[in-house]
Amino acid sequence: MKSLSRRNFLRYSALASTSLLLPNFLKNLQGAELRKIPRGAKKLIVIQLSGGNDGLNTVIPYRNDIYFKSRPQIAVDENTILKLNDELAFNPVMSGMKEIFDKGNLCVINSVGYPNPDRSHFRSMDIWQTGSGSDQYLNTGWIGRYLDSECESCKKTYSAIEVDSTLTLAMKGNHRSGIAVEDPQKFYMNSSENYLRDISGRKTEDDDSNVSYLYKTLVETTSSADYVYENSKIYKSKQDYPDTGFGKNLKTVAEMIISDIGTSVYYVSMSGFDTHVNQTSRQERLLKELSDGLRAITDDLKINDRLNETLVMTFSEFGRRVSQNASGGTDHGTANNIFLIGGNLVTPGFYNSAPDLANLDNGDLKYEIDFRRIYATILNKWLDADDASIMGDKFEQIGL
Length: 400
Prior knowledge:
The chain has 400 residues and is α/β, with parallel strands linked by helices. Helices cover 38% and strands 13% of the residues. Strand 3 and strand 4 (88-90) form a beta hairpin. 46% of the residues are buried. The model is unreliable at 1-34 and 193-224 (pLDDT under 50).
């Protein structure tokens, strides 16, 4: 057989490189029995705030003198805050979240963490994504194990989508994993019949053996990619989402949910929260983007009668220390707040009291609620799954 020309080699090498980014999609979608989730089926959206968001400048204990004394330069001005009750307020840039809160669609859980906290970004994120203890090392995520569990529909099709180019540990199970789809159209274009036809029309006989495996793999996934793309076009949102990667990803999630794509769990990440230096302006920009994005998707889902069947959870791998540092920022801390958004919250508003700033652990907040209790509650009460089996232990659930 003749050798490939340099031009053809480069062309097919590039194509192969692109396809090698897709195996997690392809393996999960090949032979899948695609189906739409029936109206009323519950959906979960997990939003990861990477870097360790400063919870005390997000939900502000504005009546606590210790807060202002500990943060002489970066404490939020009491005259600008968005008051939620007699003790706590949102950062002034969070008008969108305040609107959700006032409508009874937001629950704030304070002082969430875990025993023997780790201040490493990587290790603490692994703990949150796997749902493990600080002394456990797991290679599967809590959502991945949900897909591995008794979830019958998960055996027939994909049930979890991460709106990104790569898959986090949280979405990986032993036998099943979520899929990473950053853009349904790009996914379709990378494996559509039109694309395959273009490859077929340009290749020579000399190239056949070099691309046959790739051609076959792509052909096998054409129908699945076509389904995702065509159904994602059923609803195109007109809501005003932030013009950022995070905003666009939330819009993609809303369009998939409202189009009744067969997915139960969505995962979206937002980065940049590691605010050691000059925290105020940086965090406020991120909080405004988060708040405006959450308001947009909440309104989108509510207008389309999907908010009652959707639960949104935000988390960060840890909070920040109570006292500011010398660089106008905050260093890695421990406990933090979690936001839950939905139309069926039993406890809207504040689930528990403000963090106790007078009773610290070497300058850090003490956790009050183990995050695994929240996971267990969501798995059992929202996703109707065996939480103890998935979490590897029985955790006391909370009233959400």
